[in-house]
């Protein structure tokens, strides 16, 4: 038996009941926000930090940005529409550790994605799931660095990505249902079954990105945070709605993909590592699926 399979068998076991969200809804606060095109323009294409640094905007000194601290669970409303959210203590500790291992293993076995200048970033990001093939534009899969020679080990790699994507999707669908409406509409259009997850899960390690917009077909992305040791100053900035969310381990958060957003510079001086995972359906992936099924947009 390979070390990978042995490691898998010794992992923390979880049950379906462990995946049930138990946080009392009264702890989730509704916050009204405004659509701020001026702040979106200000932050687009810029790195952000929590101190005064050259080529970085100090997010904590911007009095027009409202900070959601790491103890707050909120849903953001703009003109009566939900535009984002963050939920703390999203899963029991064993589930946190279980999916933390899956995020790490997904990062370990896939190639890092190199994004364009408009998505300039620091840290590593990988993809698992469906992507368009370069040659024919049909749906394909994100490549592994090296396929495992042991079929059981390869099954584990695949299972890590599949269960992680399913968990993020199911969590969004149950507790933040507005986040999955665009996914469900697309699945209906291309005649995918209810149990089929579309799009891809993107996993990242110590990821810090400039303010940018994504060309995604899904209206929302849903993400999860897993920290090892102490990570400081890890803010998700969302200037289009005048918000910065202080991320913390075991948080689920969501955002509108076409709104300006990014992640601030991390303070890793205490030896911490931040891992994140997020699901979304990119425009290229959506077009590849439509092409494969002979469906026009």
Specify the CATH class.
Alpha Beta
Order of helices and strands: HEHEEEEEHEEHHEEEEEEEH
Regions with little confidence, pLDDT below 50 for 5+ residues: 1-10
| Radius of gyration using CA atoms only | 19 Å
Domain module tally: 1
Distance between the termini: 47 Å
Structural class: alpha+beta
CATH topology: Double-stranded beta-helix
Relative helix content: 25-40%
Q: What is the approximate shape?
A: globular
By CATH, the architecture is named: 4-Layer Sandwich
Biggest sheet layout: 13 strands, mixed
β-strand percent reads 25-35%
Q: Please count the helical segments.
A: 6
Overall pLDDT, averaged? 88
Strand segment tally:
15
Structure description:
Strands 1, 4, 5, 6, 7, 8, 9, 10, 11, 12, 13, 14 and 15 form a 13-stranded mixed β-sheet that branches. Strands 2-3 form a two-stranded parallel sheet. Strand 11 (235-238) and strand 12 (243-246) form a beta hairpin. The longest helix is centred in the middle third of the chain and has 25 residues, at 151-175. The protein has a single domain (3-15, 29-292), classed as Double-stranded beta-helix (4-Layer Sandwich). It is 25% helix and 30% strand. It is α+β, with helices and mostly antiparallel strands and 297 residues long.
